[in-house]
Prior knowledge:
Number of helices: 14
Distance between the termini: 94 Å
Number of strands: 11
Shape: globular
GO molecular function: dipeptidase activity
EC number: 3.4.13.19
Mean pLDDT: 91
Keywords: Dipeptidase, Hydrolase, Protease
Helix content: 40-55%
Oligomer: single chain
CATH architecture: Alpha-Beta Barrel
CATH topology: TIM Barrel
Amino acid sequence: MADLQDDEDLPLGTGGAGARAEEQADAQAEQPRPGAPEPAERARALLTEHPVADGHSGLPWALSRLTWYDLELGDTALQTDLPRLREGAVGAMFWSLRLPQAYEGNRAVSATLALIDLAETVVRAHPEGLRLAHTASHTADARAHGRIACLLGPAAATAIDDCLGTLRALHKLGVRSLTMSGTRWAGEAGLSRFGEEVVREMNRLGVLADLSGSSAATVRHTLAVSKAPVLFSRSAAHALTPHPDNVPDDLLAALREGGGLCLVPCTAAQTGPALRDVADHLDHVRRVAGPECVGISGMYDTESALPDGLQDTSRYPQLIAELLDRGWSDTDVSLLTWGNVQRVLREADFTAKAAQIRRAPSTATLDRLDGDGAAP
């Protein structure tokens, strides 16, 4: 019989103490590493590299209702100011130019121009904190210089007053998103012929179509016509909360095919009363539409009731920490906060440059194409 060897005489990896050491190492690898960053710490680190691009801020309209404000020192009348934006790691914001439903025609146009003028005034007054941006490169440059990029839009569709020339003028003033609802050319039955021409001209200019609040037929019709990605600027999952502005799963799947973006709002009515409810909607949209098609809309300063834990723009790190705790990867979080908005802006700009080579500015009018202007 061969002599037995002590464990310590066996080569490592062939049994004995070496095998036990490997088993212990494997067991330790399955346990959380001592000193591994907590979700809150990871969230802060991620947001330093990939800040939040907020898809819908009501700041312009909120400021237009005030006689005095100071975004640098902070204002209790607002949910947004520079200290809270910095605390929340916000790198870019879409400044909504939405109007009350009663605003139509010339009133809608003039009110939108007034909001654009106010936005420019606010940015000029805070040059160390804010910078107007029109493209993905502008937003990246603003971030590189420690500024928060401010993009104008979505504007109300009524702001173009059924005129493509007005659309072009608003684009020159910086508008980069237009809501496709509340008009005669985009209704329950979809887009009219003039509505299709509006989408084509938006593609040529680089103006994103915002489909929040649009009918299912308009969503599908716009997805079929548009060569650029589309947005839902303030829509959550209808499967979880049957709010009229939320998106059903079949349209989220269609959005995935078209490379669009659903920006989930932080509002109690559309997502629920707590931060975890917003996280539930983000989970659902990511699962159905894909991690490349989900983003965040704070909906701050829009008079919407906000979930507990997300009372102002400083609270985004808590939301990101919740997602990390649920198992979101660093890559998916970086897409959610910054990458997806940047992609959509880049693709809209690329589509516009290609379209401008092939297509002159449209001279179409609603009366010529639609007669009475009714959608089909």
